Prior knowledge:
Layout: E1 2-6, H1 10-20, E2 24-29, E3 45-48, H2 54-69, E4 73-78, H3 82-94, E5 98-103, E6 106-110, H4 119-130, E7 133-134, H5 135-142, H6 146-158, E8 162-164, E9 170-173, H7 175-180
Amino acid sequence: MRTLITNLKGQCLFNASMKTQAEGVIILIDKGHRKTELDKFIKGGEIKIESEDPIKICSKISEVINAAQKHGEIFIAHGGDGLGSLLNFVANKEGVNAIFSCYNNKIIRVPVLKLDVSKTRLKILEFLSNEDLSAVEIGEKATISRAMVYKHLAGLMDMGLVEKSRFFEKYAITQAGKIAII
C-alpha cells in the first residue's frame, strides 16, 4: 500500500496525491488548519497535532510514519509552514520512500537525506537527554576514552546537537539533539 502523509491542503494536496498515486492519505493538521474545497475529494484520515512543543510534534509525526510503514511505502509531501519543516525532518530521519515539497502549487521531489550520527554519538545524546554531564562522566557511561569523548562532543556541537552547559565543564543536549533521538 502507498500512503501519503502530508500537511498540505487545497491544490497542493490534490497535486501531491496525484503525483504519488497514494492509496491512502494521512493529513496532519494543526490549530490553524482550514479546509478547502479540494480537500473533500481526498480520501484519508486526519490527525490533529495538539502540541506547540516541537519535540512532542516530532514524536507524534514519527509515531504516525512508523505505524504507516507497517503497511507499505510511505510518501511525504509538505508545505513551508512550521509543521511542514518538522514533517520534512522526521521523514528524513525515518527513511521514507520519497519526500515532496509544494512550491507555487507544484509538487517537487526532494532528496531523502540521512542524519549521520554514529551509535556512540546517539548513546551520548541519550545520556545527555537525562542530565548534563562532564566529559569524564560521558566517558564512563559510554566506556570510551576521554579523547574519543571530546572528538564525539566536537562533532555533536558542530551539528548543533550538544552545547556547553551552564554548569561548570558540563555538556547539555540542545532542542535539535532531543529531536534527533526521537
